[in-house]
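Repro:
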Amino acid sequence: MSAAPQPDARALSRWRPPSAAIAILFAALVGGALVLASGVNPAEAYAQIFMGAFALDNWPNTLNWATPLVGMTLVAAIPLRGGMINLGGDGQLIIGALVAAIVAIYLPGPGPLVAIAALIAAAVAAGLYAALAAWGETRHGVPMLISSLLLSYPAVGVASYIVRFPLRDTTTGLPQTALVPEGARLMALNGVLNVGLILIAAIAALVLFVDRRTVVGYELHMRGINLRFAGYGGVRLDRQAMRIMFVSGAIAGLVGAIIVLGSQFRFIDDVLLTPSYTWSGLMAALLANGEPAGAILAGLFFAALQTGGFAMQRETSVPRVLTMVLQSIVILFLAVRHGAGKSRE
């Protein structure tokens, strides 16, 4: 009778749990300690987060919150896959939302066609605006990290002026546009789910396909691994950067359009920035290091964490800002771990 094969000791020693899993566990422990210090049972707080996100009655809220958050995760993850950082998601989101509102309100025609035109116009406008950051880096040497962030400020400021003065709905006195006509609104699935969920899911599937199965995805991955190698291999780096930033901005514009046409039904000043979809999406993309499948899962995880935070705050009096603290701890842990690994090389 032959002896059972023994596991390879060297293979076991080389196996390590994923860094993301360790980071989430570490954040949970730190968050639990903070909750305990406030006089609340950490197990109860985490149970309320779980129930608030995954209970059957709460699923629609989680999916509706995940729709823009996963969209903005893709906005950050696609450039990050190629070693580029797009910090201008807020500005691109605002441009898409405002353009969608203007088209939907003032363009005549059948409602469904107007809605489609508004979505397309939002994507094109936000994509072109995002491509400015890539153009500044490739043609004038302005780092994309800086220019993409700075471009958000004029976008937000100009949109705020437009909605407060030329396009303000004078019947309300608030800084917002008139209502989008009912025919141009995105319908709700079962009366509760934003139909934008289907659009974002389709975009996510397309991103995964391009990343895994096409030359475009391979070249972008190679750029992220080694920029010079990708250039020597024949990749037109300047054009690639412009295309990638256009796609990233276009998705941000679509997210803004989905919010305006599918839930708010008008453009309201500052409301789109309050949930911090851009920065939560950036953290989700960083958690997966830009890998699309992991980034999408991270975006869904953060969406569940944030929606569960409302239930935790309601049932335990622990403020939902704890969920943002947990997200930050996860990213900080990964940054420290990555930095320590670099220093040992």
